[in-house]
Specification:
By secondary structure, the protein is an all-alpha fold. Helix content is 65%, strand content 0%. The chain has one domain (7-156): AhpD-like. The longest helix has 23 residues, at 117-139.
Length: 159
């Protein structure tokens, strides 16, 4: 499989801006373990194999347990996720799928019961960022694992 084009090279200012936004979103108030779950779940929904590969490796490096990684796609039925993580995953799904009529007040209140307004705002930006990356990676057919060495993902030892 070959990547269609090198978007980082062809649109360097836009790539740099998205990288900057990504870095800023990671500095928010939501813990890294939840950001890892969010990145993986959005990538699953969008069918972005490149990002799914990357963020599974990142989560592994960050110490995430393999069984929890296996359960992300079925988080609603899994006992392995806390109420806070469930709220973040529900928010991720709603913003990634964007239901007709928008995000319900019921969902917002449920999420608000687990995360502060600042955390919801920061999480919303993280969901926006991963969805942007998913779209560009899918568009160019980014090759899973092709950036492992550049991003230090080879440390996950998942080949």
């Amino acid at each position: 499989m070959t990547q269609r084009l090198n978007y980082a090279q062809l649109s360097p200012d836009l790539f740099k801006s998205l990288m900057t936004l990504s870095g800023e979103a990671k500095k928010g108030t939501v813990e890294q373990s939840i950001l890892d779950l969010v990145d993986i779940r959005a990538s699953q929904i969008n069918g972005c194999t490149f990002c799914l590969d990357m963020h599974t490796k990142e989560a592994t490096i960050h110490g995430e347990r393999p069984l929890r990684l296996y359960h992300i796609a079925s988080w609603r039925d899994s006992p392995l996720f806390s109420p806070r993580e469930r709220a973040a995953l529900a928010w991720t799904e709603a913003l990634t799928k964007l239901p007709e009529g928008g995000v319900s007040d019921e969902l917002y209140e449920r999420v608000r019961g687990q995360l502060s307004e600042k955390e919801i705002s920061d999480l919303t930006f993280q969901v926006m960022v991963i969805n942007a990356w998913n779209r560009v990676s899918i568009a160019v057919k980014a090759v899973p694992g092709s950036a492992d060495k550049a991003y230090g993902l080879d440390k996950a030892q998942l080949q």
